[in-house]
Specification:
Elements (H helix, E strand, L loop, with lengths): L1 H27 L6 E11 L13 E11 L4 E10 L16 E7 L14 H9 L4 E7 L2 E10 L3 E7 L5 E10 L3 E15 L2 E11 L2 E13 L17 E8 L2 E7 L4 E5 L4 E4 L5 H14 L5 E5 L5 H4 L2 H6 L3 E5 L3 H8 L10 H4 L6 E4 L2 E5 L4 E6 L9 E5 L4 E4 L21 H13 L5 E4 L6 E2 L1 H7 L12
Parallel strand pairs: 15-16, 16-17, 17-18, 22-23
Antiparallel strand pairs: 1-2, 1-11, 2-3, 3-4, 5-6, 6-7, 7-8, 8-9, 9-10, 10-11, 12-13, 13-14, 14-15, 19-20, 20-21, 21-22, 23-24
Helix pairs in contact: 1-2
């Protein structure tokens, strides 16, 4: 009898959900909506690029547009960012001296995230109607709401909060993030208006990992516009790889994909890897390349320069291997409670599958790794990009290892200052090198292709952005 009642309850909830979805579809005008184009302006935030581990992501002025093909499950978002924060704090390509344009295309096979079509009101209705939805009552801000939920792609739980007018006010989901674990994505929708028979929100705010990533006011909506979208290239993220190239005796530059790159330093009985990169896969590729280059010595230390998403995503992989993490003291709470404390159940990584205790060396200002013959000096660099940034210096080779606040010169970028101006991040690096009286001849930036002459930094500090191209060693 209990089983029968449970099955009846589940069926009733599913039936209630179907009724709710029908009512919401009617209120939104979703039944005949096949495509939509909308645009507006507001703010965009650089995800996981905060100045401090516990701070919001950097904020930018943004013009935003999006085209969605509901029938094909395709979406294209375009964002034009300009500088907002003064002085700049955090990453995201700051400071921007001109517009930074970006476009993102997503489809049914794309990684689940904030750009998924099902995380829009009309997209949710279409996706939920094709699933096995459930309905329940829940309080939100002191009001009773109907929550309709379903599971997308047999993995991701999606919940929509429906108000008394049968409009969707909020959609929640969770996705796998290598740093934050099972990360929440919350999108709120407000101030609906009628556009060509379709109700559409004119205020959209999205939060990922607890902080805002998008805030826009929609000013133009075109239902069933002529939308031509090509699906994203097959294959998704490229296969992680790392290839070491010797840049000094016992020092290798590990270039590969995805960026940033890493550096390997050999000592008498062990090696040190600097930078874990943007994915667990790249971290494991770095570790494998280190073993190939120096097969008889273990990686004992991993130097984590700072907490940004493209520099700490492989940290858990090194913990799983028993490698000691060298990082700034400021990261202690974030790494111990969040990176190592949050659950990783949506996409279990190596550490989730085989948990073990982490070993850390917390650096305040200076730390030295030495075996009596070779020395790696690790220094904190006060700067506006990341309050916890560390750099490395190999005195025997006069080699400076740095990331983000000095990059290898390549194609022009929106954060290249005009002639006569100096980037505050470059200025911070130059000041720290002079303060420490480091005899630097070459610099190995993690965003680059190898070691370059230090003269490139000194020229940039003189306001000469277009440094001469030199052969990289």
């Amino acid at each position: 009898m209990l089983v029968a009642l449970a099955l009846w309850g589940a069926g009733a909830a599913s039936q209630d959900a179907s009724n709710v979805l029908t009512e919401v579809a009617r209120a939104l005008g979703a039944a005949d909506l096949k495509t939509v184009q909308y645009s507006g302006a507001g703010f965009a935030y650089a995800f996981q690029q905060s100045y401090r581990p516990d701070a919001p992501y950097p904020k930018f002025h943004a013009a935003y547009s999006r085209a969605i093909d509901f029938e094909r499950g395709l979406s294209r978002e375009e964002t034009v960012r300009t500088q907002f924060e003064n002085p700049p704090r955090g990453g995201g390509g700051q400071p921007l001296y001109r517009e930074a344009r970006a476009a993102a295309v997503s489809g049914e096979a794309s990684p689940w995230g904030g750009g998924a079509v099902a995380l829009t009101p009309h997209g949710f209705i279409k996706a939920a109607m094709s699933a096995s939805p459930m309905a329940a009552s829940r309080q939100l801000g002191g009001r009773s709401m109907t929550v309709v939920s379903f599971t997308a792609r047999n993995r991701y739980r999606v919940e929509a909060y429906v108000n008394a007018e049968r409009l969707i006010e909020r959609i929640d989901t969770w996705t796998a993030n290598p740093i934050l674990g099972d990360m929440p994505i919350e999108t709120t929708f407000a101030e609906y208006r009628a556009f060509g028979g379709v109700q559409f929100p004119t205020r959209i705010v999205q939060r990922q990992g607890g902080f805002p990533t998008l805030e826009i006011t929609v000013t133009d909506v075109r239902p069933n516009a002529a939308v031509t979208l090509a699906p994203p290239a097959a294959g998704g993220l490229s296969q992680a790889r790392a290839e070491g190239r010797r840049i000094a005796d016992g020092v290798w530059y590990l270039a590969g994909t995805p960026e940033p790159n890493s550096q390997l330093i050999e000592f008498r009985d062990f090696t040190v890897l600097i930078e874990s990169s943007v994915t667990e896969g790249r971290a494991l590729a770095n570790r494998a390349e280190a073993r190939r280059l120096v097969p008889n010595k273990p990686v004992r230390y991993h130097v984590n320069s700072h907490h940004h998403g493209d520099h700490a995503a492989g940290l858990r992989a090194f913990v799983a291997e028993g490698v000691t993490i060298v990082t700034h003291e400021m990261n202690r709470r974030f790494y111990e409670q969040v990176v190592l404390g949050n659950p990783h159940t949506i996409a279990p990584d190596a550490l989730a599958k085989a948990p073990r205790a982490a070993n850390f060396i917390w650096v305040d200002d200076t730390h030295v790794v030495s075996d009596g013959t070779r020395t790696l000096e690790i220094y904190h660099v006060p700067n506006g990009h990341a309050a916890n940034l560390l750099m490395g210096f190999v005195p025997q080779e006069k080699l400076l290892i740095i990331t983000d606040i000095f990059n290898d010169f390549g194609e022009p970028r929106p954060n290249d200052p005009p002639p006569g101006l100096v980037s505050p991040y470059y200025a911070a690096l130059g000041e720290r090198v002079r303060q420490l009286k480091l005899d630097v001849e070459r610099i190995a930036p993690s965003h680059g292709t190898g070691a370059v002459p230090a003269e490139m930094l000194w020229k940039a500090l003189q306001g000469k952005v277009q440094a001469p191209q030199v052969s990289r060693q």
